[in-house]
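2024-03-11 09:14:02 INFO worker-7 job=invfold-0412 stage=load source=structure_tokens
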């Protein structure tokens, strides 16, 4: 009986530490740079179906290690043939109008400053000048 009390006290002492560890917020695992950079130019081949774009969000977030900034969740997505020959999908920021066949500037994804541990996806913008 003499050993029972210290064992119980030891259990009570460890419990708050164990609870604190399990309640700690997860570290941000986002794999994105702090700032965007220009990624060249391309031509819009088509628009991604909105249902397919929405369904692809979990996979995109898993690939990047964090959630998309909520301000970009409802963006249209386009399929773009980049000047280097690669074909990829890019978000069209709200307020930007584009059409199939249009030349666009490409911007890389980056960490959002609006929402912690989230990112702004790859974006396109109208190409107002000659290609480089």
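2024-03-11 09:14:09 INFO worker-7 stage=emit residues=132
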């Amino acid at each position: 009986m003499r050993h029972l009390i210290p064992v119980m006290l030891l259990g009570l002492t460890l419990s708050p530490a164990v609870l604190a560890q399990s309640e700690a917020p997860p570290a941000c695992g986002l794999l994105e740079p702090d700032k965007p950079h220009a990624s060249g130019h391309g031509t819009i081949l088509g628009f991604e179906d909105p249902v397919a774009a929405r369904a692809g969000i979990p996979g995109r977030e898993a690939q990047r290690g964090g959630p998309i900034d909520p301000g970009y969740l409802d963006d249209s997505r386009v399929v773009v043939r980049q000047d280097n020959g690669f074909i990829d999908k890019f978000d069209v920021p709200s307020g930007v109008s584009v059409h199939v066949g249009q030349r666009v500037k490409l911007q890389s994804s980056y960490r959002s400053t609006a929402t912690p541990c989230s990112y702004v996806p790859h974006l396109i913008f109208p190409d107002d000048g000659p290609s480089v």
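2024-03-11 09:14:09 INFO worker-7 stage=report msg="Residues 4-23 form the longest helix (20 residues)."
2024-03-11 09:14:10 INFO worker-7 job finished
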